[in-house]
Amino acid sequence: MSEKTLLFYERIVALRPDTHRNLRIKLGAAGMHFAKPTHSVLLSATELPMAALDYPCVFVKDANGAALIALMGVRENENLMVDAQGNWAEHRYVPAFVRRYPFILAEQEGSNDLTVCFDETFSAFSETEGEALFKGDNQPSTYLEGVQNLLMGFHRDLQITQQWIADIEKLDLLVDRSIGHEYNGTRTVLQGFKAIDEARLRALSNEQKLALLESGALGWIYMHLASMNNVAKLGWRLDARLQAEGVK
Description:
This protein has helices spanning 3-6, 17-20, 48-51, 96-99, 142-170, 198-202, 206-215, 217-227, 231-244, and strands at 12-14, 24-25, 40-42, 57-62, 65-71, 103-107, 114-119, 125-126, 131-132, 174-183, 186-196. It is of the alpha+beta class. The chain has one domain (3-244).
């Protein structure tokens, strides 16, 4: 698993019915504090219809390849969607990457099999309170089945996203971008991401545009482009936070 995938997780262990048959989780007890120190999270293209309404959805690239992310802050290690009490901003989309925590899928070495794992440091786990993970016969509870469906769906959607990004890269549509924000004379610049260049998109041949249209990729491209209008909204959120903190 890449660093982008392991964000939030401190100590991952495989979930085993024989070992964790009594494990429960107190839903909502720990809030979203775990997400406070990050300004971006991994996103699947299938989430764009919702995520693009609230966040700038951009691309990053490292040694492991390119990925789609949702920006939730304009400064490093600051999530403007989570308040001091650990609450996510009301009526704002919560990406699947965040919703799946503290659970995650891991591939077994030398195999394509996937194992449900969890972060055992998460404070909401208990053996006496909360939603049970297993039934008396050691089969997954209804709650855990829902978690498994979320994890498998997100895993599948990330594979679809990787193919979409590969198609975009083949067309050489990605260019470097940065976000600048100024507050009372102090300027902050967030760098290291990429966006689709509209001029390069328009310059594609009719055949290439038709292929993007028929595959559904063109719709996601325009959602990504529209999402860039949310940069200003993040700036407004930062201004409001700084003002509330009394920062001059």
